[in-house]
Amino acid sequence: MTYFAGLRNIPAKRKHTLAEYRPWQLHVGWGLMLVSWLGMLGASVVGMITSPKTSGTDVFWVTFWGLAVSALLVRGWWGGPSAWTYLKLLAQVLGVLTLVGLVAITAVELPYAHLEVSLLIYYVPGLLGGLALLTAGLLNTRHVRLWYAGT
């Protein structure tokens, strides 16, 4: 089946409406994922605009991933328990990878003692985005599972 324990316990899908009450953990989790994604996407767009080396390929990939992840977030909000479970796992993994990546970049740059101020455009959204994703991934509480189970 799967090695991930969180993916083995997905409740059965049931009909939900957008007007239906949702636990606050879902609102906070999706909000954090959306804010982190918009921050990272904004940093990519600003980096493309300010870089003289931006090519058409860069524009294509930022646009492609911007639309793909946005569609995934919309599907997750409208979807059922499997969408939330997969996105929760994705948020946890990407949150940790983002924070580890920032530590690795800092460790490489620090011995040379020339951390560029222009890199802050990536550090700040990366740090906030990684923390937001990690927090959003940890919000799969008992209330969320009960809501998806229909009880």
Folded structure, characterized:
The chain is mostly helical and 151 residues long. It is 72% helix and 0% strand. It is built from 6 helices and no strands. Helix 2 packs antiparallel against helix 3 and helix 3 packs antiparallel against helix 4. It is elongated and about 55 Å long. 20% of the residues are buried. The mean pLDDT is 78.
Low confidence ranges: none
The radius of gyration over CA amounts to 18 Å
Arithmetic mean pLDDT: 78
Report the β-strand fraction as a percent range. under 5%
Order of helices and strands: HHHHHH
- Give a count of the beta strands, DSSP E runs of length 2 or more: 0
Q: N-to-C terminal Cα separation, in Å? A: 26 Å
Structural class call reads: mainly alpha
Q: What is the overall shape?
A: elongated
Give the fraction of residues assigned to helices: over 70%
Enumerate how many helices there are, as a single number.
6
| Biggest sheet statistics | none
Give a concise summary.
The chain is mostly helical and 151 residues long.
Layout: helices, strands, pairs:
Layout lengths: L4 H4 L15 H27 L5 H23 L2 H29 L10 H18 L4 H8 L2
Helix pairs in contact: 2-3, 2-5, 3-4, 4-5
Which tags fit this structure?
151 residues, single chain, mainly alpha
